[in-house]
Amino acid sequence: MAATDPRRGPRRTIARLTPTEIVLFALPLVLIVLLWGNYSHAAILPEDRADIMYHGYDGGGLEVGGPSVLVRKGLEDKVSVWTNYYVDMITSASIDVLATASEYTEERTETSAGIDYLRDKTMMGFSYLRSKESDYTANAARIGISQDFFGDLTTLGISYAYGWDEVRRNGDDVFEDEIQRQAFRVDLSQIMTKNLIMSVNYESITDEGFLNNPYRQVRFLDGAGGFNWEAEVYPRTKTSHAVAVRGMYYLPYRAALKAEYRNYGDSWGVDAFNTELAYIHPFDNGLTIEGRVRYYSQTSADFYSDLFARSQAQNFLARDKELATFETTTLGVGVSYEFSMEWMPLLTKGVVNVTADFISLDYEDFRDVTQSGFAPGEEPFYSFDATVLRAFVSFWY
Amino acid sequence: MKIRLAGCVLLTMLAGCGSMEIKPWVTPYERNNLADPIMSFSKDPVSAGYMHHVYQAREGARGAEGGSGGGCGCN
C-alpha cells in the first residue's frame, strides 16, 4: 500500500526528506564534532545515582501504575553504565474500549540498559531497550556521540536508533505483523550568557510496518439512520520531523525559568506544536518547589474521520483519537526535599520527590459515542481530564 | 531542494571552520549559576522519561523530547 496522500500540500516538504538527504545533513555534523572537538575541554560522565519511582496515571477510564527503577554507576571516570526496569499495570475502560469492546487488564514490562564511554573529549553511548506485553513486543537500540567544544560553551550530539517490533492480537493466533523504526537525532546546546543556556533538538523518525492498533475500529453511516464499525486501515509507512527550542534562565535570587517550544509534522498530515513554561525555586532548607504549564495542539491526520460516509469510504481509515484535532493543557506541581546521607556508607545524599500533573484533553472532531439520544455525528465532542503522579526517591553515591 | 543543498553546504562550511579557535565569551569561572542543579534541562531522568511516555501515548507528536530523548520502542 502506498503511504502517500494526494491531498498533502507542499507545506509538508520537511516530512519528505529521504534517508540520503538525512545522511547528507549528518556527515557535516560528524565533521563538526570531530574537528571542533580539538578545541574542547573534557566532558564529564553523568553522576552516579539510583532512582526508585512509583508512577500513576488516572484519566479517561484508563488507570496505569507501577514501579520504575533506574541505576547508574561510573567505572574509573571513563565508563558509566545504567539500567532501568519499568512496569505498567493497566486497567482500561477508555472510550475506545467501551465503544467496541469491554474492560481489560494488561501488564507491560520494559527493561533497558546502556553504556556511556568517555574518551578524551568525546562521549559515546549505546543503549538497548525491550518492552513486552501480551500482544506487543518492542526492541530498540540507540548509538550516539556528543562533544563539547568552544571551551565547553557548545555541546553537539547526534544519535541513531533502530527499533524492531512485533504486533499481535489477543484471541487471534493467526495475526502477527512487525514494525521497523529508524530515528535520527541532533542535539545542540549553547551557553548564551552567564545565566542563560539554550538548546535546539531535531529528530526524524521513520516507521514501516503495521502501524495501527489491531483492535481499534472506525465507524461509518450504515445508510439506515445508524452507524456501524469496521477495522482501521493505516498506511504502512510514516515519517515525522520534530524541532524543539529550549531555554533555561537563572534568576537573580537563585531560581530557574525553563521555556520550551516544539514543532512537529509528519507524512500522515498531523501538524502539532507545544509550548511549556516551568519555574523551579529552591529553598535553603533543602526544599525545592516546581510549577509548570504546558499547552499542546495538533491537527488531524489526512485519513482521520469520526464518522465516514460509508463502509470502505477511502483507502486509509482512522478514528484513533490520537490522530484527531485536539488540544492538551497541563498544569504541574512538584516538591522535593534533599538531605545528606553521608552517615550511610557509600551514599552522599538523597532526594524525595512528589510530582503531580493535571492534564485536560479537548477534542474538536472526535465525538463521544457512548452518549445516547443523539443522531450519528451529532454526539458531543469528547474531552477528559487525567492526573499523573510520580513519587520517587533518589540516592547519590 | 535548493534549501536542503544550502543547508548541507552551510554545515560543511561550519565543519571546515574547525581549524579556527574561538575564545569563549563566558569563561569557566563565570558558570557557577549554570552549574546549579536547578539549571539542568532534565534533572530527574526517570520522571522526565515517564512524562515523555505519557505524552507520546496520547498525542500525535513524537521526537525531540528534552533530556536524553527517545530510545523507547513502545507504541
Topology:
The complex is a heterodimer of chains A (397) and B (75).
Chain A: H1 19-36, E1 49-59, E2 62-75, E3 79-92, H2 95-100, E4 104-119, E5 122-133, E6 136-149, E7 154-169, E8 172-191, E9 196-209, E10 217-221, E11 227-231, E12 237-251, E13 255-266, E14 271-282, E15 287-298, E16 326-340, E17 349-367, E18 381-396
Antiparallel strand pairs in A: 1-2, 1-18, 2-3, 3-4, 4-5, 5-6, 6-7, 7-8, 8-9, 9-12, 10-11, 12-13, 13-14, 14-15, 15-16, 16-17, 17-18
Chain B: H1 2-16, H2 45-58
Features:
heterodimer; A: 397 residues; mainly beta; Porin; 16-stranded antiparallel barrel; two-stranded antiparallel sheet; 2 helices; 18 strands; 6% helix; 61% strand; globular; disordered N terminus; B: 75 residues; mainly alpha; 39% helix; 0% strand; flat; disordered C terminus
Q: What does this entry look like structurally?
A:
The complex is a heterodimer of chains A (397) and B (75). With 397 residues, chain A is mainly beta. Chain A has one domain (10-396): Porin, CATH 2.40.160.40. Chain A has 2 helices and 18 strands. A 16-stranded antiparallel β-barrel of chain A has the order 1-2-3-4-5-6-7-8-9-12-13-14-15-16-17-18. The N and C termini of chain A lie far apart (54 Å). Mean pLDDT of chain A is 90; it is low at 1-15 and 35-42. Chain B has 75 residues and is mostly helical. In chain B, 39% of the residues lie in helices and 0% in strands. Chain B is built from 2 helices and no strands. Chain B has helices at 2-16, 45-58. The two termini of chain B are 32 Å apart. The model of chain B is unreliable at 68-75 (pLDDT under 50). Chains A and B meet through helix 1, strand 1, strand 4, strand 5 and strand 6 of A and helix 1 and helix 2 of B.
The CATH architecture name of chain A reads Beta Barrel
CATH superfamily of chain A: monomeric porin ompg
Strand numbers in spatial order across the main sheet of chain A = 1-2-3-4-5-6-7-8-9-12-13-14-15-16-17-18
Distance between the termini of chain A: 54 Å
Ranges of chain A where pLDDT stays below 50 over 5 or more residues in a row are 1-15, 35-42
**Roughly how many Å apart are the termini of chain B?**
32 Å
Task: Specify the helix fraction band of chain B.
Answer: 25-40%
- Domains counted in the coordinates of chain A: how many? 1
Main sheet summary of chain B = none
